[in-house]
Structure formats: structure tokens, C-alpha cells
Amino acid sequence: MTETGEISRFAARFFKEVFKPPYEFRELLRQSYEIGWNSLPLVGLTGFIMGLVLTLQTRPTLVEFGAESWMPSMVGIAIIREIGPVITALICAGRVGSSIGAELGSMKVTEQIDAMEVSGTNPFKYLVITRVVAATLMLPLLVIMADAVALFGSYLVENLKGAVSFELYFSQVFEFLNFGDVIPSITKSFFFGFAIGLIGCYKGYFSKKGTEGVGKAANTAVVVTSVLVFILDFIAVLVADIFYEL
Amino acid sequence: MGQTLYQHIDEANEALDRSKAVIEVENLSKSFGDNHVLQNFNLILKEGENLVVLGKSGSGKSVLIKCIVGLIGIDSGKINVLGKNIPGLEQEELDRLRAEIGFLFQGSALYDSMTVRENLEFPLRRHVAKFGENVDSLQLVREALHSVGLEETMDLMPAELSGGMKKRVALARALILKPKIIFYDEPTSGLDPITAKEICYLMLELQQKFHTSSLIITHDMECARITSNRVVILIDGQNYAQGDYRELENSKDPNIKAFFK
Ligand SMILES: Nc1ncnc2c1ncn2[C@@H]1O[C@H](COP(=O)(O)OP(=O)(O)OP(=O)(O)O)[C@@H](O)[C@H]1O
Ligand SMILES: [Mg+2]
């Protein structure tokens, strides 16, 4: 519980300093590459498999009801609204959260963060802000990519089993999809990215001495972030629901 | 040989007596919870002086220098560095002051993700103004590496260096801004005796070449003997005794004698 307060204070410090110069653009770019580009293979692969699995699993049921033609729009909505963002966020909580936690943790323990500070570079700006911003910006892009790959995986199954053409499949996907599905999904992806960056940095930045401390920083970063992803997702659904009502 | 060496130190110390203080620490206290690390600690570092602070492991030596450079906030007392009152400084002023300070960390603290060259360029990012507009950072990096004898490591990663080389690179990084004061936190820890001695002589050489003042933290007596103009002994959070190496070496006080065994 005290931790919630500390994380909030950490977040407040982020917002206080994020717009203040000097900006660390080069490091931001490097982190975006690290977080975004280097997560592509893993996110792509999981997205693809999710697409395959989801379609293979739901297909028989729909066939039974004779609702086979609903397949693309149903899978499309499931992937874009829920599965794409959440799976991507969880994968990134594991890959990105732990690596940020471990990296900053070991920098803390080996006094590299102190060294930055005495070199006149604000380590909070250089390390934390760049990573949090990079994660916040990259996650939605990764989600869009994961959605696309998952839909493609789903199309492959449909194409094999039901001989649907590429054009037909995707026109059906997009027919039932509207901004009300896409916008909330992208919006929550920003929050997922923010949470992943923030918690990873927080855990690393305040990591305890010793190699054990570093391991713990990485580990708890993943655990806390994963739980947070589900909580945020739940909140996002509630908020989106309120908008639908209006 | 020994006699002439001491004579040289005597002369140097006389000159130091007349020079002004670059660091003054007065009644510094710092606790972490119930752990009272420093209690009314006093210390003066004079211009051009090599001052060694001796103390057992965990006695608060690292905490002391981190307080002096403003990395750790203090509970009470005064810290004056180059005429500036550290606890009262705004971040910006503190950063400007830090351009005059070099810091060698206990574990070298090289940035793992950067090459040796990038490590050395890092302090230049913010403080390059100190050298005017058209400074050639590569030239400064070369000079700094040259003064520690490691020019060929420029494009290596820290992981590719030995412990002694890391210390030297870290030293080069501490030197690159041509600081007025250098803090050495255990410059010889984790090194074999021969490499340790090399580092000590390098420190002496740098003192003479750049006329820096240094605060050296160690529990390596050989290093203290070689590098010190004056020695301060830190016991129970206080400045227990000070004097030149020979004075303390011949002291009858068992607490002091314990260091010289
Ligand atoms: N950030 C911190 N938070 C809490 N306690 C600390 C912190 N830093 C240091 N201490 C405590 O202060 C005491 C002095 O630590 P310090 O690192 O200064 O010792 P040292 O004299 O440098 O020892 P060594 O020779 O082993 O480096 C220790 O008891 C340590 O546990
Ligand atoms: Mg120490």
C-alpha cells in the first residue's frame, strides 16, 4: 500500500519533469528502438499464434450454429478490442518491464546512476523519462502490429478450412469494426505502455543493494505490471462502456 | 632514499599549510534511521592537497564523500566546496559546481551500455561549455585516456576491460573535465598489489600534473602512504585523528595503531 503512494509520487515526478528541457532525444530514440523494434519478433509470433488458436477454437462452434460467416468479424472484434492489446502488454511486461527493471537496478547498484548525477546529467530525465515515453509511444504501435498479424493468422485458418479469399475475409473484418472499437483499444495501449515503463523504472531506480536486489527489481516489475495491465484493462472497459451509453 | 622522499613531503606540506581550503566540512551529521553514520564530522581539504580518509568497512567513508558532492542529503552541519554551500544549492548551481569535480566510484561505475569513448564523453554532454564553443570532444577523450595510458581501449565496451583497466578508464572519465577536486572512493579495492601501486603512483602523477586537490578514501595503507599529504581517521562517525602518515604511524593510540598493523 505504501508502495502505491511511492509509485504515484514517482509518476508525479515524471509528469513534472517530462516537458522540462533539456530533452534527451537520442536516448529516447535508442530506447524506442530497443523497446519497439526489438519486441517485434516476439509480439509478432505470439500475435500470429493467438490468431490461429482463436480461429481454430471458435470455428467448430460457429460451424455448428451455421454462423461460419460471422467468423471474421467476431475474431476481428475480439482481437482488436481485447486480445491484441492485452497479449502485447503482457508480453512487453515480461520482456520490456523486466529488462528495464534489471538494467536500472544494476545501474543503481553499481553506482552508475550516481555517476550520471555527478556528471551533471539528470539521471531521472536520461533514464526514466526516456524509457517511460518510449514504452508509452511504442506499445500502441506494437499492438497495431500484433492485431494485424493475429488477423492474418486467423485468415490463414479460414482460408484453409473455408477457402475464403483475402479480400473477402478482411472486408468482413472491417465491416463490423468501427471507431468505437479501435479508439479505446489504442488508448488503453498507451496506458499499458506507460505502466510498463513506469513500473520497470520505479523498481529499478529504487532497487536494493546487491545482485539479489537487481533480480528482485526485475521480477517484481513483471509481476506488478502484469497485474496492473489487467486492472487498467478492466477500467478501460468500464470507461468505454460509459461512452457507449452516452 | 626514504629520507629524501619524506623531505619532499615536508616541503610540500609546508606549502600546503599556506594554501586555502577547497572543501570545508563542519559538524556534519548523517543518519539512516537508527544508523548514525556520521556525527559532527569535521574536515578541511586544502588546495593541491591529497587528503586520505581512513576508516573501517562500513564506517561511512562513501557516505561522507557522497554528502560532500550532494548525492546524499545531510541531516545537519555545513559543507562548503569551492566557496559554495552545498546543502543550500539549487540543482542548476550544483550541476555547475560538479563540472569542477571528478568522482572515481568504488566499483568504477562505468556505463555498461556505452563504449569507453561514450563513457568519457558523457560528462562533456552538459559541461562542455566549460571549454568554450569549439571544443573537440574526441581530442579531450584522447588526452584523458592518454593520461591513464589506455588510448587503445577507446572503442571497447566496459565488459571487455579488466578490473584495473576499468579503474583507469573511470579515472580518465573523472579527469576529463579537468576538475579542481577529485574524489577517489577506494581507488585500489579489488586490484592486485602491483596494479594497486600503479594506480597510486598514477594518482600522484595526476596531482602534480593538473594541480588538483584530492580526497582519497581507502583502507589500503600502502595507497595511503604513497598518495597522502595528510591523513584523517574516521572512527564512530567522527574525525578521530589527523596528521601526516608518519605521525599517525607512530601514534600510541590503540585505535590508530590498529590501522597500521
Ligand atoms: N543509501 C543508504 N541507505 C541506508 N543506509 C545506508 C545507505 N548508504 C550507506 N548506508 C549505511 O551507512 C553505513 C556506511 O556505509 P558506507 O558505504 O559509507 O561505508 P564505507 O565506509 O564506504 O564502507 P566500505 O569500505 O565497505 O565501502 C553502512 O552501515 C551502510 O549500511
Ligand atoms: Mg565505500
Q: What are the salient characteristics of this protein?
A:
A: mainly alpha; 9 helices; 0% strand; B: 261 residues; alpha/beta; four-stranded antiparallel beta sheet; 39% helix; binds adenosine-5'-triphosphate
Report on this model:
The complex is a heterodimer of chains A (246) and B (261). By secondary structure, chain A is mainly alpha-helical. Chain A has one domain (2-245). Chain A has helices at 2-18, 25-35, 40-64, 71-109, 112-118, 123-162, 166-175, 179-205, 210-245. In chain A, helix 2 (25-35) runs parallel beside helix 6 and helix 6 (123-162) crosses helix 8 (179-205). The model of chain A has no long low-confidence stretch (mean pLDDT 92). Chain B is 39% helix and 25% strand. Chain B has a domain at 106-178. In chain B, a hairpin with a 2-residue loop joins strand 1 and strand 2. Chain B is α/β, with parallel strands linked by helices and 261 residues long. The mean pLDDT of chain B is 89. Classes of the chains: A mainly alpha (246), B alpha/beta (261). The A-B interface holds A 103, 106-107, 110-112, 114-122 and B 66, 69, 71, 91, 95-96, 98-99, 101, 103, 105-107, 109-113, 122-123, 125-127. The complex binds adenosine-5'-triphosphate (ATP) and magnesium ion. The site of adenosine-5'-triphosphate has 12 residues of chain B, from strand 2 and helix 2.
